[in-house]
Amino acid sequence: MTLLGTLRRLLSARDAFDRNYFNDSPWGERLRNQRAVLERDDPFAAASLDVVKNLVSEAHSGIRMVVNITADALLKFLDSGHYKNLYENPVVGGRSRMPSRERTEVDELLGFDDPSKYYFGAVALGGTGIRFYGEYCMVIRAGAEGADARLFDRDSYDLLLSPLAAHKRRMALCLRGQWRADLLPMVALKVLPGFRHQQRVATAGLIAGDLLRDQEFIEVHKRGPITTDGIEEIRLSPDELARDYQGHLEEAASEAPSGARMIWADRREQVLEAMRARGIRTRVVAGYERGYGWE
């Protein structure tokens, strides 16, 4: 391909991005620009935005930074009182872990002054976080995310994937923000476009579901350690109770549970005992259309 052809291709790819969203202006300005588009297409957009504002501005609404963790890692965290990132070479599953080449590249793109000082999580409103990373969802206390906590409007590994990879340095700059200044516009811009064709005001439950769905989330970069003192509670999915129930059924039917099942159950008991000893509240959360039920 000629140099001119390459240039045209790059310009075309750049123009394919929504310029109201993918730019270097403050997130509040992006929301103001996008609001006109949203309200043109959806008569309920202004009312839905008011719901988002209330959820973000009120501490009791439950919008928090969450970190998912496996049972083995959680036991080590509860024992030491300090959560380790990959730069601290944590031992997970019997192996010492370290940051991958991709992780160090992304952290350089994100502009961290010292990557070892940053800890990753997600913005959540209820729910049990990103269970891909672990079945236990640690909820950071309101304010404990820190005054200088950063946000990234998606999984930062997306910078290495098409189509962002072709513009990764520019995208790393325009997709990041600050918790205190940009949480509201980033949340609003993430969830409101999805309500355009529903012909109704968005509810807290619907917003919670769209804010963190599977591995789609707003990433949080907390500068400074995560300690047990900064944990508000640890949440579990009903799936974990279902596993327990299945184990009880196997025992009642005199069926010998598998070795893996016995190890899982024993580790779970250790985790629950460690949380009780630390005085950390544990809750099971089940999702409903208009919110969350707690046990």
Secondary structure elements and pairings:
Blueprint: H1 3-16, H2 27-41, H3 45-57, E1 63-69, H4 71-80, E2 91-92, E3 95-96, H5 101-110, E4 118-125, E5 136-140, E6 150-152, H6 168-174, E7 176-178, H7 179-191, H8 204-211, E8 219-223, E9 231-236, H9 238-252, H10 259-278, E10 282-288, E11 291-294
Task: Provide a descriptive summary of the structure in words.
By secondary structure, the chain is of the alpha+beta class. The chain has one domain (23-236). It has helices at residues 3-16, 27-41, 45-57, 71-80, 101-110, 168-174, 179-191, 204-211, 238-252, 259-278; strands at residues 63-69, 91-92, 95-96, 118-125, 136-140, 150-152, 176-178, 219-223, 231-236, 282-288, 291-294. A hairpin with a 2-residue loop joins strand 10 and strand 11 (291-294). Helix 3 (45-57) packs antiparallel against helix 7 (179-191) and helix 4 packs parallel to helix 10 (259-278). The longest helix has 20 residues, at 259-278.
Features:
about 300 residues; alpha+beta; two-stranded antiparallel ribbon
Averaged pLDDT: 86
Q: Which secondary-structure class do the elements indicate?
A: alpha+beta
CA-based shape: globular
Strand content: 15-25%
Number of helices: 10
Assign a percent range to the helix content. 40-55%
**What is the helix/strand order?**
HHHEHEEHEEEHEHHEEHHEE
Question: Briefly, what is this?
Answer:
This protein has 295 residues and is α+β, with helices and mostly antiparallel strands. The protein has 10 helices and 11 strands.
